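Form 12-C: Joint structure prediction
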Amino acid sequence: MHFTSFLENGKLTIALTGEIDHHCAKAYIQIINSKIEAYMPQVCVLDFRDVTFVDSSGIAVVINALRNMSQIEGKLLLSGISPQPMRVFRASGIDKLVEIREAVS
Amino acid sequence: MKFDNYMVLEFPSRSTNEAFARSAVACFAAQMDPTLEELGDIRTAVSEAVTNCIVHAYPNEIGNITLRCRILKDNVLDIVIRDKGVGIADVEQARRPSFTTGGAERSGMGFTIMESFMTNFEVSSVSGKGTTVHMRRRLQRRK
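Section 2 - Result
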């Protein structure tokens, strides 16, 4: 698994792709963690534009990223969320913990 | 009970089958002319139920999971997902949001999501015998 990421003025954007379920959640968590550790950004943006499905394992991925970013006193932002992941994030209440920008339809 | 159509699947509790199961149910449900939102909700609920079987019912072995879908009258999709795994000791506790015995890649929100995305949701479990999740979703009739 490989995700494109770029760092600009202390803001790290990680472009996630595919379907986030239990089968691959560990890999997403590890990749995001290692990128945050490597770049120590002030802001980390998880770009969900090319994520086509999320279940509760995706919530765990976001919570792990949130934890890592708060350890380095940084901020986490989710962007490009399409309707299916948005419903999962709303049902779990995670939309109250992180700033979410929905996909422009 | 009268039903129009049904399908039954049996597969081992391998995590690659999470995607297979939710996609198979979505394909079956397509004949009911669901909205994208309804289809998304159904895929998510099936993914949660099957993941529970894989993570919790068979923690140290590969076991069988059966999935049955029926189309009932009034455009209701009826889904039963059954395992013969370890069972849930305390169903009420398991249904509570954020309760999990899983690892860091689990969030404890699976039951909450199934409950909020489906019209009906029931869990029955016998310790050492297995767990059955029975859920229904009524789909809007589109003109």
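Section 3 - Comments
Chain A has a mean pLDDT of 94. Residues 4-102 of chain A form a domain with the Transcription Regulator spoIIAA fold (CATH 3.30.750.24).
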